[in-house]
Structure formats: C-alpha cells, structure tokens
C-alpha cells in the first residue's frame, strides 16, 4: 500500500512539473518585458499626434519554434493608421516568442489600445480634433470568418502618447 501511495504522489509531482512547463509566458522575459518592448517600439508618428489618433487594434500572429513570426492577421483596428506602426513593432519582436512545448507553430491573439494623455487645460480645439478624427476614421474589419483554432490570448498592450 505504501508503494502505491508513493508512486501516486511521485506521479502527481511529475505531472505538476510538466504543467508549469506548459504555462510559461510566451514572450521572453515575461509580461512586463513584453509591454515595455511594445511601448518602446510602437512609433507614434507626428501625423498620428496631429490627428489625435486613438483606438484599439487586435492582431493574430503565428510563431514557430525559433520564435519567428510567420503570419500576421488584422482582426480589427479602429483606424487604418494604427495598423502600420503595430505591424512594424510585431516584426521587430521576431525571435522573442516562446511556443508551447511539443508544438511546431502556435497562434497568438494580442490587443493594442492607443490613447493620448490630454493636457491639463484641454480646450475646444482638442475636442474638435478628437471629434474630427472620430468622424473621419477608417476602421479595418474582418469581413469573412477567421478560424481561431488553438490560440493564446495575450494581455492588452496600452500605449499612451503625449500631445502638445
């Protein structure tokens, strides 16, 4: 009876060790490093600052065992101007992704939120600029079914930029 109990405990400990291997954060260095990487590498252009661009964008990408990004799909973006800087930052993250154990490729879903920090004395001109952007924005939408398969939803990356 003692041998069976000892074998059962050893099996549980071994299974929990493998579970830890499966649940590692998929970016080298963890969540905080990932957030810092994207905050440093998403280039908010002067045109975006001038237009007061804000919004959300959701991307799906595939990474292989070397951490290289193989495919990027835009699920949704509030404005087309959000797409280019985020794709460029995703390309810079090539080689930093960790694919779960025993998989050749893995899909990740990552949302981005881009906002500006308003000045202390926001006036009517800022309100007009925000309204003009909202009225003229060109959203990017998926118009066809996109299968999710086995995808890992990553935490949202929030980008705040300063305006004058």
TrEMBL record:
Highest taxon of source: Bacteria
Keywords: Signal
Signal peptide, first to last residue: 1-19
Keyword Signal attached: yes
Protein name, entry field: Uncharacterized protein
Species in which this protein is naturally found: Mucilaginibacter calamicampi
